């Protein structure tokens, strides 16, 4: 009798166990979304950065294509007044949404070589890598030198561009990048070079270039073809110096 009862209990429990297992497999498949839930130990920061950069580039291209479709539809609705069309064109150049070409400079920044890091274990690691302040100093000097347009890693710099350090990478427009960092400016090459030479911050950076072999190279460019900025121009928040700030939500964030 007890044997028959155990057999009956097993027959009843088996379907429940199979159902639970099925639910677990379905949950794992949904969470993974076709990816490995336990990635290889060989996964590196460089690989993650490259994957994120590729994904961002794909989304940027899609955004640019959709923006182009919108402009075509707007054109089909009727011709724009010539005076207004010229104003829009002039503003687009200033904003950075129009490709530009011309002579300029490219500044390349690199971390110290691996052998230098290995040979100086007691040196603060922050001294051996390029930081956001270094990139910002170069960009600010180039603007001060009268640059007409600037790009970083071949991405156009606009008024809302932010440069941030995250771990061993620098984030630009929400996308992480690893060195070397290439900063290109279009403008009078002599004035641009003079502005770099006059920068006190860059002068201090040169000390680390000599002591720890940080990379700092300036190259003359006879003709630079700089792409337009293709990201969103939405401004989530902003403050005016000297005015009291009050919490606010942008229209795009509120959905209204």
Describe this entry's structure for a reader:
With about 260 residues, this protein is α+β, with helices and mostly antiparallel strands. The protein has one domain: 2-Layer Sandwich (Alpha-Beta Plaits). It is about 50% helix and about 20% strand. The chain contains 8 helices and 8 strands; from the N terminus they run αααβααββββββααβα. The strands form 2 sheets. A 5-stranded antiparallel sheet has the order 3-2-7-1-8, with helices on one face. A hairpin with a 2-residue loop joins strand 4 and strand 5. Helix 5 crosses helix 6. The protein is globular. The protein starts with a helix and ends with a helix. The C terminus is likely disordered.
Question: How would you sum up this structure in a few lines?
Answer:
The protein has 256 residues and is α+β, with helices and mostly antiparallel strands. It has one domain (46-226): 2-Layer Sandwich (Alpha-Beta Plaits). It contains 8 helices and 8 strands; from the N terminus they run αααβααββββββααβα.
Major beta sheet summary: 5 strands, antiparallel
Structural class: alpha+beta
Q: Looking at this structure, what is the CATH superfamily?
A: Protein of unknown function DUF881
- Poorly predicted runs: 30-43, 248-256
Question: In the CATH hierarchy, what is the class?
Answer: Alpha Beta
Tally of domains: 1
Under CATH, the topology can be stated as Alpha-Beta Plaits
The average pLDDT score comes to: 76
- Give the distance, in angstroms, between the N- and C-terminal Cα atoms: 71 Å
Strand and helix order: HHHEHHEEEEEEHHEH
Radius of gyration: 27 Å
Walk across the major sheet and give the strand order: 3-2-7-1-8
